[in-house]
Amino acid sequence: MKKTSILIYVIISIVALTVLLFVLVNQDKKETEAESDQLIDDFEQVTAIDVLASEDISLMKSDQGWQVEGAEEQEDTDKIDSFLLAMEEMTGEAVEVKKKNVNLDFPKVVVSFMDQQDDRQRIAIGQMHDQGDRYYVEHKEKETIYLVDRSSVEMIPLQRLALLDNKILTISSQDITEIEIDNGTEVIKLNKEAPFSEKESLAHLSGWYMHEPYQHVYSVAFSNAEEMVVGVDGIEQVETVDGHDQYGLADSDFSIIFSNGEEEEKLIIGDPAANNQYYVQVDGKEEVYKVPTELLDPYSYKAYDMIDHFVHIVSLEVIDELTIETPEESIQYSMNHEENAEEEVETTVFHDGKELDIDTFRDDYKQLAGLTFDQAYKGETVKDEPEVMINYLITDENNQSIENTIAFHAISDTDYAIIKNNSSEIDFTIAKDKLHQAIEWAVQTGS
Prior knowledge:
The protein is α+β, with helices and mostly antiparallel strands. The chain has 3 domains: 38-163; 178-305, no CATH class; 316-446, no CATH class. Helices cover 22% and strands 35% of the residues. The chain contains 8 helices and 27 strands. The protein has helices spanning 2-35, 77-88, 150-153, 198-201, 222-234, 293-296, 358-369, 432-446; strands spanning 36-38, 46-52, 57-62, 65-68, 91-95, 109-115, 120-128, 134-139, 144-149, 178-182, 187-191, 209-212, 218-219, 239-241, 254-259, 264-273, 277-282, 288-292, 319-325, 330-339, 345-351, 354-355, 375-376, 388-395, 401-410, 415-420, 428-431. The strands form 3 sheets. It has a 9-stranded antiparallel β-sheet. The chain has a 9-stranded antiparallel β-sheet with strand order 13-12-11-10-15-16-17-18-14. A hairpin with a 5-residue loop joins strand 24 (388-395) and strand 25 (401-410).
């Protein structure tokens, strides 16, 4: 009986706690919803918007949609739509604060919304909150000050230019196939022409390759390739300037050529301008623009910092034979690949006719596949025999055998020069200890 009473008390306690938690959660939810107010009422009825800022901007709604009044250039519908959506969804938390304490007594930015009945709603933008995540915004007709998320407020255009198509290139990211960068120190040539078979290319994620300035071709790092390709659409001017002055364009040592295989556009970068911008010009055109430095940053890296630093990366699922030769021995692995019912490749690895545990081998192989070089080589041609050699044999999609040999020649007590496929050209070096550690598992297999 006593145990039954205790059990009943426990059950009642759990139920009570559950109910209490439910009440508290819903109360908190209601309080949160109550704190967040819609700033602009009946936004769908708005037909005119005026932005009073460093430059006055007017937008009018017609049967053709929203247009920027007085726009001399092509409007950017995506930018206009983003601005409208931010205003429609703008919400804020009402706060008690004096106007003069948050720069709302003489606001520098006011946005006015008018409907067909000439009913007007105005919001004024004050200073940013101390936490840096929201602005003080006053709805003048409601006579209320709100704290509004900065992402919404910063969608308000302060110049007409912010709503226009300000691209200075006609080539788009969808069509670009080649980029050539001359930074005054090196000429970097990038394109989508893979020097590898389709099977070898599986391990090269970006699909972009650097053909110069190095002797061999290297895969462009995915993040760098993405920034450069997507960045083509984002190169926009913030101002057109008088082109009579040179602005460092005549003797520029920084240019970028974008090509889509049929046509190319050359962007010439001149002197730095104020407000973290550069003067730029499209070759063959008279206009000179100011472009934010951040839009040019993806093309400002050194060649070495644009590429993957893998010595030689190839997927285990395409290798037929792997041979690692050291001064002491030669270790050879053979692979068999078959597709299962799910069309996934299942690999079996053999050494000296003995099947190896695939999971263990895969973990070991990752050390070799992930091996990276350390620095560019600036010495003379190496004539000594290699101390270590790694040989990859694969069969490509045309049933042709492809062999890649990576040789490591000692150039000091601590470093190897890397030579690919018996070439006399050397691009990079690697620390001896680093290589030895990456192949230690294979040496142990052979011993």
